[in-house]
Amino acid sequence: MLKFNVDNTWIKSSLHCHSRASDGMLDPKEVAQHYLSRGYHLVIITDHNKITTGYGDRPDMMFMPGVEISKGKTQLGGDYHIVALGVDDPAIINLASPQEVIDEVNAAGGVAIIAHPYWSGLVHEDLTALSRYVGVEIYNTGCEVEVAKGYSTVHWDDLISSGIKTWGFAVDDAHRYSRPPIDTDGGWVWIKASEMNQKAVMDSLKSGCFYSSMGPAISRLEMSESSIHVEMTPVARVNIVSRNGTGLSIELSQLIKLIEMWKEQGVRRYLGAELQNLEKVEKKGLTKIFLTGGNIMLEVTFDKKGLRLMDIKAKFDYQYMRLEAIDQQGRKAWANPFLVR
Length: 341
What we know:
By secondary structure, the chain is of the alpha+beta class. It has helices at 28-36, 98-107, 124-129, 141-147, 153-161, 198-207, 252-263, 265-268; strands spanning 2-5, 9-17, 42-45, 62-63, 66-71, 80-85, 111-114, 135-140, 167-171, 188-193, 210-213, 218-223, 227-235, 237-241, 247-251, 277-283, 286-293, 296-303, 306-313, 320-326, 332-335, 338-339. The chain folds into two domains: 7-214, Metal-dependent hydrolases (TIM Barrel); 220-339, Double Stranded RNA Binding Domain. The protein has eight helices and 22 strands. The strands form three sheets. Strands 2, 3, 4, 10, 11, 14, 15, 20, 21 and 22 form a ten-stranded mixed sheet that branches. The protein has a seven-stranded antiparallel sheet with strand order 1-12-13-19-18-17-16, covered by helices on one side. A five-stranded mixed sheet has the order 5-6-7-8-9. Helix 1 links the parallel strand 2 (9-17) and strand 3.
């Protein structure tokens, strides 16, 4: 079972950003202050082929070493960009191949992430040619606002569908900060950690104890082979994504349309066997829907701002499941996959 809730220590984290030590527009201390003022608890500056340190020492914020390393050649002639977190040995920058970098990061107790697969032009064969990296960037703010290549969830699903356990990271990859197009505070990671220290954070990242977001917050999530329970800030849509054509999507506008159809006896017949029963309860500004159809039982709580709670009971004959929540502005949150089988 996958299970997390807000009754733990959660660390809002920026895991990929740049400073003037490479090609960013702020000096390292300005980067730290920039994220501190926006409610972040962890900042890792990952300058290009350079480990930047000494930019933060505050009791209310964590700072760790990191670096973005470019190595190797991909199928389409580009290079791999590897974000290495929690490693302060500059010798890794001079290693010959991307796999050597990943192996050395792991040996040092750090975390290796494949940066912006879509922006880098990576194909499935590129990602499966490497091994033992923790995850891939599924959203990159800079890549999205500059060239519309920020989303890499297709790469992520291809890897999971191939049986490769891979976590998904949302990052800024900030360079410009306050100069449009603004590439900051657009993607982050909420890390569930036992303590506010580097070892606990690295352990959580390796085990997938985090979720990524552009805005929506997930306060509770439980997933098993027969049930899903999620509580979140108001969203317009919740997707359960799985392999190939499996999965499901629940959108508030479609749910309201379904309710209206159910009211009309003459229209109800168009729903066929897909919907067997629907009950609606309104109380204190909240609407609850209890729905039974086929092999699924669904309870949804929402208000005028969006979906807030969802309980699904079914026999999920899926290889894996991962949850996406999308708010009214189109911003997403992604939970890491639950491997059903």
